[in-house]
């Protein structure tokens, strides 16, 4: 079996990102930092990626460690940043691409300690794996406004100022978008039918995407 | 007068009837056709100023009287639409209550009105039915289906995304407001299910 290094780039790309090399260097300088503290950093970086905490929690913890272990705040920040970057880069290629052994080898080449490598491995292949990948795909990208809520009213117009007898359905929509806009508007029945037809068409097209030849290249 | 369909506006009509009775029939018919085409349209005047001036010279009646006549005729159509009158009822009303000239020759005028009403009634009523009261209404829906293949955080994805552009027309200003929203597969399914429930309610209404 040829060494994976001959046919595959490491997971972080073909050059070592500066954030990572600085992290390794700083870790060597801060040899007084005990492993449990490092473990906590790694755990914090995981929740950072999952957006489970605000950035202030991490910074607070770093400040506490500064006082506890008497290490400069900037150095701890560099280490923390390096961990987050490693996780981000590991989540970037498609899920099937990242094999545990190759991943560990790459980390070893970066000169991380075995304990740290084990930690990263547990995070990426552990219980939250799917959630991590989902967050990387869905949250960290630009999106147009989404429809937060969609209310509707179906009334029947019985009489109007211009017609004493007129039995017509009247449809109202209220859209609330993530762009903080509330739109209330009337929908003529004809337009509603067109909307419904087009939505069904879109759904059918979406389902058919998996079958299209050109997109088969994107199988992950 | 209280039996007339036009009980609200009978004074208006009284003033114009003599003018109407004196008009040339063919020109009157054309006038009626034009008025019927434009009755009930919102935000539109039936004749522009230029056209009014031309009518003035054609009919040899002052512009003010012409304007009044046009308004009266439009009013007659609108009231007929309101009550959904039958042509015969309209004819009787015009002749008996409104003093459209009765003699055989000029009775023709009332008949012209009724004929125009019979042919345009459906169209006028439809137009009135579809007038909007709400400030905004949906005038058009545009969409695209895109597939995301790459992003900063993931090098390879296959992510179908539907982008909708809802065009809302403001009825007063005729301005179109464009609202763009994005849907992924799950969101689109949820949206579609809501549309389906609306449709089932509509179907229940119709039966």
Automatic annotation (TrEMBL), chain A:
Highest classification ranks of the organism: Eukaryota, Metazoa, Spiralia, Gnathifera, Rotifera
GO terms under cellular component: nucleus
Protein name as annotated: COMM domain-containing protein 5
Entry similarity comment: Belongs to the COMM domain-containing protein 5 family.
Superkingdom, natural source: Eukaryota
COMM domain location: 146-210
PROSITE patterns membership: COMM
TrEMBL record, chain B:
A Pfam family that the UniProt record links to this protein: COMM_domain
PROSITE patterns: COMM
Domain COMM residue range list: 137-206
InterPro entries: COMM, COMMD10
Name the record gives this protein: COMM domain-containing protein
Protein species of origin: Adineta ricciae
